[in-house]
């Protein structure tokens, strides 16, 4: 084993339908988490493991975070997502490339309470009709929190995912 081999836990958080499960499947290279357009498809944390010559990363897919005034199911899913953040080495906060929504603020509040690096992942860049809209979104995001990094990706097509993996490894323990 090399001295620079890293290993750690990475949690994926965000509002429902930001592509957390699709990204998990892309990162581990196989379908380990159900994907659906229907909100609340992921109801328990799902762990996917990727091992290669440089790293072993345990990705934790969490239920989408909802506004707290939701019903019993929303409160349960928020607790499940919050509990999944304990003991992780890095957090990926996912938002959609169509910009910050009110429900993203709930996930942002969870991210701001973390003591580990938080990487903002702007997903669904393949859906942008005008790629020039990405730069203002990145600037707006920087004003919300001092993210360790901001990485635009498309979990669906794989664009930017290699850059994301490289970035994640920089924040994992040796």
TrEMBL record:
<dbReference type="GO" id="GO:0043024">
    <property type="term" value="F:ribosomal small subunit binding"/>
</dbReference>
<dbReference type="InterPro" id="IPR006073">
    <property type="entry name" value="GTP-bd"/>
</dbReference>
<comment type="similarity">
    <text>Belongs to the TRAFAC class TrmE-Era-EngA-EngB-Septin-like GTPase superfamily. Era GTPase family.</text>
</comment>
<dbReference type="Pfam" id="PF01926">
    <property type="entry name" value="MMR_HSR1"/>
</dbReference>
<feature type="domain" description="Era-type G">
    <location>
        <begin position="6"/>
        <end position="174"/>
    </location>
</feature>
<protein>
    <recommendedName>
        <fullName>GTPase Era</fullName>
    </recommendedName>
</protein>
<feature type="region of interest" description="G3">
    <location>
        <begin position="61"/>
        <end position="64"/>
    </location>
</feature>
<dbReference type="GO" id="GO:0019843">
    <property type="term" value="F:rRNA binding"/>
</dbReference>
<feature type="region of interest" description="G1">
    <location>
        <begin position="14"/>
        <end position="21"/>
    </location>
</feature>
<dbReference type="GO" id="GO:0000028">
    <property type="term" value="P:ribosomal small subunit assembly"/>
</dbReference>
<feature type="region of interest" description="G4">
    <location>
        <begin position="123"/>
        <end position="126"/>
    </location>
</feature>
<dbReference type="InterPro" id="IPR005662">
    <property type="entry name" value="GTPase_Era-like"/>
</dbReference>
<dbReference type="InterPro" id="IPR027417">
    <property type="entry name" value="P-loop_NTPase"/>
</dbReference>
<keyword id="KW-0342">GTP-binding</keyword>
<dbReference type="GO" id="GO:0005829">
    <property type="term" value="C:cytosol"/>
</dbReference>
<dbReference type="InterPro" id="IPR030388">
    <property type="entry name" value="G_ERA_dom"/>
</dbReference>
<feature type="region of interest" description="G2">
    <location>
        <begin position="40"/>
        <end position="44"/>
    </location>
</feature>
<keyword id="KW-0547">Nucleotide-binding</keyword>
<feature type="region of interest" description="G5">
    <location>
        <begin position="153"/>
        <end position="155"/>
    </location>
</feature>
<dbReference type="GO" id="GO:0005525">
    <property type="term" value="F:GTP binding"/>
</dbReference>
<dbReference type="InterPro" id="IPR005225">
    <property type="entry name" value="Small_GTP-bd"/>
</dbReference>
């Amino acid at each position: 084993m090399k001295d620079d081999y890293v290993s750690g836990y990475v949690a994926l958080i965000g509002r429902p339908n930001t592509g957390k499960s699709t990204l998990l499947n892309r990162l581990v290279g196989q379908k380990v988490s159900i994907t659906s357009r229907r909100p609340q498809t992921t109801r328990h944390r799902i762990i996917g493991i990727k091992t290669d010559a440089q790293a072993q990363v345990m990705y934790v897919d969490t239920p989408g975070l909802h506004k707290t005034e939701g019903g019993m199911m929303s409160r349960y899913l928020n607790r499940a997502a919050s509990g999944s953040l304990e003991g992780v080495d890095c957090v990926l906060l996912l938002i959609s490339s169509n910009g910050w929504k009110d429900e993203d603020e709930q996930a942002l509040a969870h991210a701001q309470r973390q003591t580990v690096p938080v990487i903002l992942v702007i997903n669904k860049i393949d859906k942008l009709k005008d790629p020039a809209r990405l730069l203002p979104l990145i600037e707006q995001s920087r004003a919300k929190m001092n993210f360790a990094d901001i990485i635009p990706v498309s979990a669906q097509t794989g664009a930017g995912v290699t850059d994301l993996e490289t970035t994640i490894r920089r924040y994992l323990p040796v």
